[in-house]
User: What shape does this take?
Amino acid sequence: MKSQIQFLMFFVGSFLFAQQTIFKFDFGGNRVEKGFIPITSTSKFDKKSGYGFMDISGLKSVDNGGNALSGDFITSDKPFYFSVAIPEGNYNITLNLGDTKGSSETTVRVENRRLMLNDIKTKQGEVVEKTITIHVKDSIIRNQKGENIGFVKLKPRERKYLHWDNLLTIEFNDKAPKVCSVIIQPNKTAKTIYLTGDSTVVDAQYEPWASWGQMLPYFFVPNEVVIANYAESGETLKAFEDRHRIDKIWTQLKPGDYLFIQFGHNDQKAGNSTKSGYRKRLEEWIQKARQLGADPVLVTSMNRRVFDENNKIINTLDDFPDAMREIAKEENVNLIDLNAMSKTLFEAMGPENSKKAFVYYPANAYPNQQNALADDTHFNPYGAYELAQCVVKSIVDQNLPLKKYISKNYKNFNPNKPDDVEKFHWPESVFMESLKPDGN
Assistant: This one.
């Protein structure tokens, strides 16, 4: 309750700023484009203004002259984070990236390391415009009149997450990130894909952990589709209901949206069976989504990294994947069989190389990590990226309606031929933690 009160106080403090419908920021020096808010290397975030950088150490303002908007930029030798207090909803963010007198290389992620733009390189003197579409959420549950009718019950560790802090945070990363301007405006028309699930789906905040849900936005066309990830570590179907996470989604789902449902790992570990409420809840969610005009999509849980003596993946999920397959047939629901595709993927990698897709790191690879990490359930960014491509492949191969919104970033992935991990591009964020996520 304390954090909820603090949020309300903070929100009131930024209320006037947040009521704007369009936010225009000119990054760089003292020359400012008309109608834009100036952002310099000293623009540290404060609650009164409602915008600014999380940390201004290492930031540099560079002014090359010429056009006020594209002639100057902000850069840094380390990842930097820009936050804005804006109301919950979907937004288009238009970014001008580059350097009129040099080159640049920028990767853009939002909130909890949600991948949006990867390795955007500009040539000497080039400035490019890129648009991304993002979902901003808070923990308040509102009715159709906008009245507060409850809260999502957050876990203590979630209170540190960037996706529950009532701000939009943009991460600028890579070898030479150079940002000239940021324009944020509401998107009222994009189809929203709501993701529900556990630690294998969640937007993980800390390196080296990652999940397929936070990689998914990279593969969809901006402006048309937005990913709203409500998954959380350790959750079962029942816990997702008990903590009112699904209630939050029910108040937002609109006709044409999608509800992706992936549960099984923790339902099994909690001692449940597919007959002890799992099937019933899945069926109820399917019916509710359809009543709201949305399209439910079932996603079978991916395998754990457990091999037999013949280097074949062992099923450790009991009958949960089969139960979901059966329900998909019975209810005539689209199914993404990530369980089957992950088996193919991990077996193609093999027992040793597959460790490079999971959180396997020697001691002291990350801050305050005294012991080696060897996790056969949770993925690093490379593994999460490969699984996200499996999800997209299923959409494409089945010719699901979402296929027409898949972006050119998807390159006909083949789980039998995983991407070379040495060529995977992922500049790490500044947020690191060796503590294992909830669930297994």
Summary: Confidence is low (pLDDT under 50) at residues 1-16. The first strand starts at residue 23 and ends at 27. The two ends are 29 Å apart (CA to CA). The chain is about 25% helix and 30% strand.
